Amino acid sequence: MNDIQALVRAHYPDNTWQDIAQRDGALPEVLKAQSNPDQNLRDIPFDRYTSPDFFNREIEHMWKRVWQFACRDEHVAEVGDYYVYDLARLSIVIVRTENGLKGYYNSCLHRGTKLKPSGDAGWAPSLRCPYHAWEWNLEGTVKNIPCEWEFPQLDRAKACLPEVRVESWNGFVFINFDKEAPSLLDYLEVLPEHFRNWDLTGWYVHTHVRKHLPGNWKLAQDAFMEAYHTPYVHPEMTHVVGDHNMQHDIFSDHISRDLCAMATPSPTSTMEMSQQALLDSMLVGDGSIVGERTLVPEGKTARWVMAEQVKAQMLADYGLDYSKFSVPEMIDSLKYNVFPNVAFYPAPGLALIQLFRPDGHDPDKSIFDQMVLRPKPANNGAFDVGELIEIGEDEAFASVEGMDPFLASVLDQDTDIMRWQREGMYASHKGAATLSIYQESRLRHVQDTLDKYLEGKK
Ligand code: FES
Ligand SMILES: [Fe+2]
């Protein structure tokens, strides 16, 4: 145990995430691990969030060199399926071909028109430009050029669509603009080892909501990397979520995580709650997957009951056997962040993807995608991948049909505070953020890794 971990233990005696998680039984090794390297406790200048120059450097030196999550395998399951991934003004069309996944720059080789509109997804037998109908095979070779005799200077064999790299892991499809980058598996560092028992290839995107947010992509992601704000921005969660005593781990340049206990009170909560009361008020996350409420047996916890319910439901509805899994692996918010901008939550009770990106070429705007995962039906049953629901900055998550109402209201609270933070950054005399040593350590870590890219050290 290092100094930071000892401090956390001293502040939350018998009430750290490890204490809560181990109360219901042994944990797998990956959940027992803790990792909190020393950091440079410098202030973080706000121009890293607001400056167009900094934004341009991020695009050139970071975004064009990192592996970035674009979509799931099920979005591009059949030959001809395509999915458009946008990053600021960059845009890629990911296509399933006979020879696997390909990613093409979304720009026609004639006069540059986008081959598919931003945000689009669907099926097509070929990629045909909407302007003068230049057309490419799914494999990227020229299929047809109207009036081709007018282009004697064009070498048809060389007029293939330029590609980016596409690789997938655990059902998650990533792209990389950098031809020289390490493989995706290398980039993911400890993540594949941590997810060894959390196979998400049999899961699919059930609901997909995209919201346009008021603020830089890092500002948006920051709000989801700490629960320091939870008792103040989401007071209704205080009695049922372990926020300030959440566990934060930094494993390597690209991978960090937080582990947040459900159905346990915040250390800030003053309310005495029985295990039954905790279970009854447990509404966090995708509530519909937890199912009917029941009584907490003598000597058991609300957390144990919830985990048993999810296990029973997974077996009955999907034929998935989670009998050997620990309680937190079923119900907790286990959030793994992959640098720069995506979080994967593997627990069946709260299986999510959250993605944060620049929105156009504007440091002050971002796009937030939230995808809720569900298991594919047993026996190869049919399922529909969730259609994209896109909402504007002024539209509430609560207005989205089918979204868990509790989760929606929490996300709306986060959006509101983001707007105030952005405005305050511009109004600031100090011009920089002062981050805490533990709860906000992962925000600092993102900035540290970002610096490595900007300084050419990665
Ligand atoms: S711009 Fe695409 S065919 Fe002309
Ligand atoms: Fe929040």
Explain this structure to me?
- This protein folds into 2 domains: 3-50 and 199-454, Naphthalene 1,2-dioxygenase Alpha Subunit, Chain A, domain 1 (Alpha-Beta Complex); 68-184, Rieske [2Fe-2S] iron-sulphur domain (Rieske Iron-sulfur Protein, 3-layer Sandwich).
- Strands 13-14-15-16-17-18-12-19 form an 8-stranded mixed beta sheet. A 7-stranded antiparallel beta sheet has the order 2-11-10-5-4-3-6, with no helix packed on it. Strands 7-8-9 form a 3-stranded antiparallel beta sheet, with no helix packed on it.
- The model has no long low-confidence stretch (mean pLDDT 95).
- 26% of the residues lie in helices and 23% in strands.
- By secondary structure, the chain is an alpha+beta fold.
- It contains 14 helices and 20 strands.
- It has helices at residues 3-11, 17-22, 29-32, 47-50, 52-63, 184-187, 191-194, 217-222, 230-233, 275-280, 302-318, 327-331, 405-427, 441-454; strands spanning 44-45, 68-72, 81-87, 90-97, 100-105, 121-123, 127-128, 135-136, 142-144, 163-169, 172-176, 203-214, 247-250, 255-260, 333-338, 342-345, 352-358, 365-375, 388-391, 432-433.
- The structure holds FE2/S2 (inorganic) cluster and fe (ii) ion.
- The site of FE2/S2 (inorganic) cluster has 10 residues, from loops.
How do you describe this structure in short?
By secondary structure, the chain is of the alpha+beta class. The protein has 14 helices and 20 strands.
Secondary structure: elements and pairs:
Layout: H1 3-11, H2 17-22, H3 29-32, E1 44-45, H4 47-50, H5 52-63, E2 68-72, E3 81-87, E4 90-97, E5 100-105, E6 121-123, E7 127-128, E8 135-136, E9 142-144, E10 163-169, E11 172-176, H6 184-187, H7 191-194, E12 203-214, H8 217-222, H9 230-233, E13 247-250, E14 255-260, H10 275-280, H11 302-318, H12 327-331, E15 333-338, E16 342-345, E17 352-358, E18 365-375, E19 388-391, H13 405-427, E20 432-433, H14 441-454
Parallel strand pairs: 12-19
Antiparallel strand pairs: 1-20, 2-11, 3-4, 3-6, 4-5, 5-10, 7-8, 8-9, 10-11, 12-18, 13-14, 14-15, 15-16, 16-17, 17-18
The structure holds FE2/S2 (inorganic) cluster and fe (ii) ion (FE2).
The site of FE2/S2 (inorganic) cluster has 10 residues, from loops.
